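Quick one, tokens below:
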């Protein structure tokens, strides 16, 4: 899915083996993924999509804004804080449980879509609209 702040940006769904780059989109307040050939189109991931980054994943700490590095190069896309209407919901979860909102990723990082979730899209859409009370978890490093 694409975050609410990207609703006015052209978008397309991710496919297996997509080459993605973390980018800031013009006239938005957020970051997300774009495809290698079109930096103006957001690539939307479904919850459960697994991606692998080319290098160590860098993101900004939510309070200090210092750059941090994730513990793994492989992450699973998920949505967080769906009960809060006007906040960023798109995030990556790493194997150690660290959850990083996409809006905190440092632009210019490359990744590839490894696999899509096995849940049919119609079932995934229904599950996404159910409220959840999950919050962002920041692990101490």
């Amino acid at each position: 899915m694409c975050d609410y702040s990207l609703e006015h940006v052209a978008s397309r769904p991710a496919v297996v083996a997509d080459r993605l780059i973390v980018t800031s989109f013009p006239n938005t307040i957020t970051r997300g993924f774009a495809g290698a050939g079109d930096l103006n189109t957001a690539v939307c991931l479904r919850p459960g999509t697994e991606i692998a980054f080319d290098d160590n994943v860098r993101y900004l700490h939510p309070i200090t804004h210092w750059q941090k590095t994730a513990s793994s190069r492989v992450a699973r896309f998920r949505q967080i804080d769906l009960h809060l209407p006007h906040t960023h919901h798109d995030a990556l979860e790493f194997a150690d449980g660290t959850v990083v909102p996409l809006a905190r990723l440092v632009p210019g990082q490359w990744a590839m879509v490894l696999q899509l979730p096995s849940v049919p899209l119609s079932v995934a859409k229904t599950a996404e609209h159910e409220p959840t009370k999950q919050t962002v978890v920041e692990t101490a490093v």
